[in-house]
Amino acid sequence: MNAFSPSRRSLLGGAAVAVVGSALPGPTGGARAAERPAYRWRTVTIGGTGFVTGVLFHPAVPGLAYARTDIGGAYRWDDRAARWTPLTDHLGWDDWNLLGVEALAVDPAHPDRLYLALGTYAQPWAGNGAVLRSEDRGATWSRTDLTVKLGANEDGRGTGERLLVDPRDSDTLWLGTRHDGLLRSTDRGATWSPVGSFPAAPSATGQGVTLLVAAGRAVYAGWGDSDGTAPALYRTTDGTAWEAVPGQPAGTSAKVPVRAAYDRHSRELYVTYADAPGPNGQSDGSVHKLAVGTGTWTDVTPVRPDGASDTFGYGGVAVDARRPGTAVVSTNNRWAAVDTLYRTTDGGRTWTSLKDTAVLDVSETPYLTWGEERPKFGWWIQTVAVDPYDSRHVLYGTGATLYGTRDLRHWAPRIRGLEESSVRHLISPPTGRAHLLSGLGDVGVMYHDRLTASPSRGMATNPVFGTVTGLALAAARPSYVVRTGWGDHGNGALSRDGGRTWQPFAAQPALAKEAPGPVAVSADAGVLLWTFVHWDGTKYPAHRSADDGATWSEVPTFPRGATPVADPVDPALFHAYDTDTGTLYASTDGGRTFTARATGLPSGDGQFELVATPGRSGDLWLSTKDNGLHHSTDGGATFTRVAGCRAAYALGFGRPAPGAAHPALYLVGALTGPPTGVHRSDDGGRTWVRINDDAHQWGWTGETVTGDPRVYGRVYLATNGRGIQYGEPV
């Protein structure tokens, strides 16, 4: 393998609030150029909602910490403001795969230096990874593109940091990969080369290096592809020769080294193990410590899985820098007894479960009750951190948040500024208290009574959904809202108060449990259309209900797998776009039958979205990834391609500009050239202005976008890992 060629890029790290000046030139579309308006971008507050896979306190700077996530980038803790600052929002559409952070590293000797190893997927269809390096704590970056893939959202994403500054030389960095062995840089991450002396052979399908940790002047590397008999932990004491650590534990409970932490006072290395990398699939595990001076191993496992009803692995581990022999470890994938943290103050001879005395306060993020009376301590706990300047300040990450304590008893989310939602649906109602309803991956539907605080009602209940597949309101009766998704107690629900409270459909088609798909509701709320698509892509017939979901009938003429679109004016009119054939279908009898109208439109496996203009009957827009934006004013009989738009991924509508006749259009796409961005048109698509900027791109943003029908210029943008962004003119 050749050394990797670096590319230099210096970009501003993301901020909670940013103003884009009107003096900046922007791309244009249509017949004439338009000056870019000044916009301020902020994040709608929910609070976490995603897997926090790593937290790292800087060992030499009080109050400085960093966090990484599996799909939502990296963050720096602002101790004065008590919130997280996003550091990777500058990554754009083409770099969407870099929003997953495989590992992070700090330099103990140089507090301003920060390194990130980025790459969400290691699959053939994903791009290669990259290393970002900063000399100012993530305010600006230099970038090195790798020729290997990383997997921040794959199995093993909660294992230890795979990136490490060598304890002997700040210019030397180590990077563990999943399928390409161990890499080393001797120029602070600018170039990388493979380490030929590393004894473990890379695998095309395995976990590879799971952790890198310094213990004194030695570097230890965990290996995730052991069968339980082969070595799973290696070390180098001189930066050149590597060896398997003698006497290391073996067996099923010690197959995968998950994380490690070094107690410099006692010179002991604590290692957590499991029989699988996690976060799912673990059923056995253990904790061991190595006295690095003598080479003696000691089994210090707090509680053994019983192999029957109480199965789990071990995940996070952290040592107290101020108190020798004090460490904290976490269980992981412990569903029956619920995961916990164990703490020892005597080197692992005895342990105390912190969950048993924990008082959880989730009032700042009410969704964490998951529709139950009390929140759980957490799940997918694979990262734990102890503040090196405060022994009772402990953080641990879960699949949805980051909890913290200052007294080892009272715990609350420490998540302000960190938003990791994968957003699927957005609605901005024209009336009511909430300006926004959202449908999310994993955490259901949210009623945003405020944009700057987590929804006070938490996630929608009755029933609770995981990932949402459909969210729609009746245009003429906006208090009537329906939602569909993956749930254990029903897959469809309706609200008559704008999304504040819900009730499940009285009945649902049998397909709903295994293949819930998008839903639409007629303008007068009289008809529901529900389509069904299995997670493997299999498409099924749509179903129709005219009694609020009490009974359903199949609609054989509806194109399978299409998303139904209700006309915002005519209750009898529905549309659907068949991406397989490039055909627009319409129903004029309330969704009973559908017939083809326009044909020969773009088709295939690309991204498509059909939307209807509010307040106008038969006014349709078709967004296509490879063929731009198309517009119909005759109910889909004909379409005209919009000039000056090269690629369109999502389109939404907002309050018209003062004096304008057409609703404001908000487009995620590319105009005559790069970049892909967020654009606004106030004249029905004749001209466009870009309203985001290079520092605020958030990776992949093509799921959905909508303007606010009550506030001109305000736009809500769905991201895949950075929650809901909203922008407003300054």
From TrEMBL:
GO terms for biological process: polysaccharide catabolic process; xyloglucan metabolic process. One of its GO terms (molecular function) is hydrolase activity, acting on glycosyl bonds. InterPro entries: TAT_signal (IPR006311), WD40/YVTN_repeat-like_dom_sf (IPR015943), Xyloglucanase_GH74 (IPR052025). Keywords: Carbohydrate metabolism, Glycosidase, Hydrolase, Polysaccharide degradation, Signal. SUPFAM superfamilies: Oligoxyloglucan reducing end-specific cellobiohydrolase. It comes from the Bacteria. Belongs to the glycosyl hydrolase 74 family. This is 1,4-beta-glucanase. It comes from Streptomyces lasalocidi.
